[in-house]
Amino acid sequence: MKSYAVICTFLVVFFAALIPFNLAAQSSVSPEVADRLVDIKKCIAHLEKTGNLVRVKSEVDPELELAGIAKKYEGKKCILFEKVKGKNFPVFIGLLWNREIIGDLFNAPKEKVPFVIGAAIGAWRKDKSALASRVLEKGPANEVILTKDFNLYDLPVPVHALEDGGPYLDSSVVVVNDPETGIPNISIHRIMITGKDRATFLIDPGRHLGAYLDIMEKQGKPLQVTINNGISLAPWLVSAIPGQGPGKMGIANHIVGRPIDFIKAQTVNVPAFAEAQFVIEAEILPNVREPEGPFAEVTGYYAQRENRWVMQVKAITHQRNPVFHSLLSGQEVWNAVGLTAEAKIFVTVKKEVPDLKAVYLPPGGCGFYGAVIQLEKSKEGVQDKAIHETFKAFSSLQWVVAVDSDVNIYDAVDVEWAFTTRFNAKKGFIILKDDPGHILNPMVEGGLVTKIGVDATAPFPRTSAFERVKFKEVNLKDFVIQE
What interhelical angle do 331-352 and 99-106 show, nearest 10? Predict the structure, then answer.
């Protein structure tokens, strides 16, 4: 999700009334919560226990039919497809398309989930050596080892949209070692299966994986990776945090308050997640490009078919009774990016603009391209700085709207009201011409796009003309009301 394509690669996030969160504090989640944030089977068990799981018991075709059913449930309960035609493993989908459910999995209000991630970022920055991951010899992810006679087509990898170029791994986390330091980095990329042991994939510009591959291609050597499917929320979400590089695993560990273990791979010198459902061990071939795409992307458009990077698979390992994890491009990707980008933006911009109260990347902006920021203005002009800092913190953004703390940033009508009654295009319009954009957006040309910032805040100090109408707070339980 990042290429969030894949994710390829997001939730009603914070309210103005939120109590300030200690961004340097370590996670205090219970062992039970930590377990389900690391082990996707325990996550699924919790979803069923809380009534947030739908089981599809009929046999479904992984080509188009599975995703077609999933689309009917998008934004609602998660789905477990128990019988997938021609495959031996079930498919789980929908983990990220409902912010209420994500909040429940974190045992936190949905509005505070980005603050949980932000706190982990703060804790990791404070002590980068704490809670370091271990690399074990064995774990659940290598209970079954296939170094010969494996076939990628045996996996229940769906073909999602009508024009997709083939079956796609769109929610699997790629682990790669920095060639210079050996430190593992994690990220998500869309990966199209093209043969029983071969796949093509996309790398967005500016990604660490691309930089590592450049180093190896100059040497004419392959870059080894593990592709990890089904690793649950904490490491999965953290893999989507923009610009954190090798620090992502430390942040994931701080979310759950303990190290998330790796295991040694069988054929490559790169670790894999111990709790992954499936691990695909592969090498990215140097200076080889083959066709990849089309793919239904986060924007709601198809990414076009082009020659892209190639992986040669060397082994597959998995748990004894694994569950394959997939996602549907759309609300799942918007939430995944939104959650992590909101946390990153808040932590980063808050340092420069203490007046910042909350950040929300709404679904209409695809969780990537638009942001609403909420301010408690202490002086006039702070909103302009906040807008500029927000663009700097997340370069994929194409528009940013600044509103006051009396505006509910999660209510599109309230934001439109602020735009209508507090925005003056003569002095509240910021234009950034030819700024770097995100390649998946079709409006980005040559890597550049013009961005806009909108000041929809009331003048400071607030005059009576900008005082909002208020009503008395009442408790409906105090009244006899028949509906």
Answer: 60
